[in-house]
## 1
Amino acid sequence: MLFRLQANILILFASLCFTQNSYANKKLTENYISSFKHIAVLEMKRTGIPASIKLAQGILESDLGRSPLAFEANNHFGIKCGRDWSGDVYHKLDDDTDSTGTLIESCFRAFSTADESYIAHSEFLTNPSKSSRYGFLFDLGSNDYVGWANGLKFAGYATDPSYPSKLIKIIEQNKLYQYDEMILPKRNEYTSVNTSKSKELDSKRIEPQIVKAEQNTNKSSKKEKGSNPEKSKYEVQPTVKSKINKINDLSVVYASGNESVKDIARKIGIDVFEILEYNEELKSQDYIPTSNEIVYLERKKKNINEDGPSSHIVNEGETMYIISQRYGIRLSSLLAKNNLDSDAIPLKGETVSLVAYISKKETPKFKMVEKFDSFVDLGGLK
């Protein structure tokens, strides 16, 4: 009798512990999702990677943010240092060995915030050099988490044969798919500002003041050294900050220098995620653009208007993104026209084509500033 009573007590105690652990894990999961759903949706808007997939991967690979790598280095996706990483690092034993086969510490990136690791994870999957491996994923709908889960395994992102089922289980148990319903089904699908927003923008527009190049009657006059012959021909002169102007027949505003992207969106009356989508290198709604930085309110065009210049002479410090913003051309289109990838920065004085797709031999000289080219380590999946 006493033995049976003791056994019942032990069973009750074990059941109570299990219930408490389940409740604790549920709260941890809820807290994790609450903390990172914003950056997951933001990155989905920017890159097309489903927020549900990114959250599920973060939950799985960081053990709800409790792994040493996540807790101490804000690295939720096991991102290793790579060749050109110059930031903080975190070392731990993983899968690297020396010439004798002895396990040695691996170098992992250490981030200031976990959000940075979410962004770095996106950069890995969207890196043009890996398009042959992961590019097909972006033809799937951004709410097709099942396709993405299986596609990641097919592409070799993970070696665990149950990796897709683990992601799908996490997504469905926590209803993470609800965050995928906010955006367009395809990353590369062209979408203009909707009719109601277009009318709203039209009502707020002022006449753009496009500064035309003055006709020079003195043909023998010399060009100023280092000047761009096209510089003033296709440039919008900002008038009053936060007023809507035009570049390439697209609505833009010039940042005041003390307002975040979110502030600009609220003032204009446009979804902040649309601004982040239209301006490819604006990473966060909390980012404060510099004074007079161009911010597009509509998706940029693939080409420049017929009255625009056909090329641009690179000035000191200009990146392809800066050039794409100046002329209202999508960054991806500008890079394709010039045979460059996203890590290439053209050298000063080089000619960048704005219209034609140039040959390989005409590619402007450039230097590489690699943003991300590291192996994503999945760690010990449980």
## 2
Amino acid sequence: MNKRIIRKEYLDKLLSYKDKDIIKVVTGLRRSGKSTLLQMFRDDLSKKEVTDRQVQFYNFELPENFLNKSWDTLYFEIKSRLQSDKINYIFLDEIQNIPDFERLVDGLYATENTDIYITGSNANLLSSELATLLSGRYIEISILPFSFAEYLQGRNINISNKYLNYEALFYDYVNETSLPKGIDLREGGYDKIYEYLNALYTTIIEKDITQRHIIKDKRAFGNLIRFLANNIGNQVSPSSISKALKADKQNVHHLTVEKHIEYLVESFVFYRVNRFDIKGKKQLATLEKYYIVDVGLLNVLIGRERTTDKGHILENIVYLELLRKGYKVWTGRLRNAEVDFTIKNRNGEIEYYQVSWEISNHETQKREFTPLETIKDNYPKYLLTTDSFTQNKSGIIHKNVFEWLLEK
């Protein structure tokens, strides 16, 4: 990962739990920066007079760290190296590669003078026995690939320059990749980035999903992934996807579709967004939307000539940014309209967001403002577009989306 980028928000959160009697669990897509975050934290420890003997770092993607080793072998190996009179910092990277890893973590947690940090590339990490064993004793930090601001920082672009062509830079961001390694690969041209994304995607699909869950019909599974990629930001259901696959002469039951989608969500390839009944103030259980973790992966899934329109790609980027801000996110349902995002911020307050590429004509303006105008409560309402000139209306705050993405 490009070491020029200090992911301050994630690092500060990790530092705030240092020496606290709680396990720190960092989750996220492969290659999204989890290992580098731990390394940054480890570097910070060295500035605080923590000796190397107090630190143990295991990368369980390296075969020498997990081949022929059971959880108990690792437990006693780690325990034999502990400094009895000082705090010991234990880093267990990609721990899902260790069978019965929850027993290892539980044993180390019960040991005096240990401060434990683990990472995993599967959300199932916390729905396994680990969550049961350690209920109330861990904190999850979910990491995402680079934001637009981090991407520009990685390219050494001064965002205080008011004359930057943000739209052109945004096209670079979504057409390349938001994954940290992408910035290092830019010098080699787009083909290098594509090769990297293709290899990463293959690893996630083959190793993390297909092999682990023994998926036999790989063609149908691949078509399901491409269907979701082609429909980011659209309401879909397992039944509607099953019907679409049947039209392509693939008979996949909707329960199988539901299960396969769950695997993709667990591996952080896609994020599921439930609907929220704005009037009834309750979550709905059907017709979710899905957004992809890195829109650069769309180049691998559906080609550079994407069938997904740029409005939905922008919507995808806004969704991920709302997650980075620590918001809980739903799509909003009204009787005769939809609002792109209904969120609860960190203070538990509701906000509404509508996203459109531009509102250059009266028809588009009406389409984007009307759903927000229909909401009769007094919570903040935002319209985010690429337009240079914004126009607030009926209490709705219209913002340039690039400026919003770069807000501190």
## 3
Amino acid sequence: MKLSIVIVHYNVKLFLENCLASVEAACKNIESEIFVIDNASTDGSEVYFQHRFSNVKFKWDKINIGFAKANNSVLKEVSGEYILFLNPDTLVPEDCFEKCISFFTTHRDCGALGVRMLNGEGNFLKESKRGFPTPLASLYKLIGIHNIFPRSTMFSKYYAGSISEHETHSVDVLSGAFMMMSKEALSKVKGFDEDYFMYGEDIDLSNRIIQAGYKNYYFPLTTITHFKGESTQKNSANYTRQFYSSMKIFVKKYYAHHRFISAMLVCAIGFAQFFSNLKRIIFNGLNFSKSKTGK
């Protein structure tokens, strides 16, 4: 069995270096190919990797085409029976890929597979497994009731709270930080929706995998480290704009036929974006004030 690994990179060359080292170690006993698509990084990545990782196929884009388009740009070149979409700010254990491929061979209904993820401090990342973000599920997450009832099927559906982090189970949504797919399933869904520039495309792809007749599985028998958000600036205006734009695309695509619900969700997204921008301005203002005073 051959595995094709696709990594979209942007301005985190040292994380990418560590990621590729862990990937190559995990590929020791399997046939593989590795693609890295750089989205016009400005951190000197192209020069830095000029004489590193000779087995990796680097693609250096001159403009940032976004996460979805960058992943799709190499899909005609991949030759593996399985394709892994992997974030550059991750580390995988040496037995990770072998365990995942073995799961695919014994679960023919598996279209995509996600794994247990920990952050840099060793804490479980709840987005390792998620439910479909229905209006109610999103509302319960927004108001924080999922924290009061973390194992509830109803109130914690957004993070599939009724499923233990150590339990293998089919789920609605997998994280784009680590999503392994069979080539058969990927061919049917035709990759990521390129309307999304960044954020939300993993939810969309997960949903289309299910619509195509496959299952998404959360597989916790291997654990990776995900230094979450290293390639984004959470307090930047660009992050806020891209994140909420993706949410609007998602609502338009899946709830347009429910006009009232769609309108309510768009309004909620607008309010959330306003308060996020306000929070960012206050946060950045406080940091600027501290830098001026030296405190």
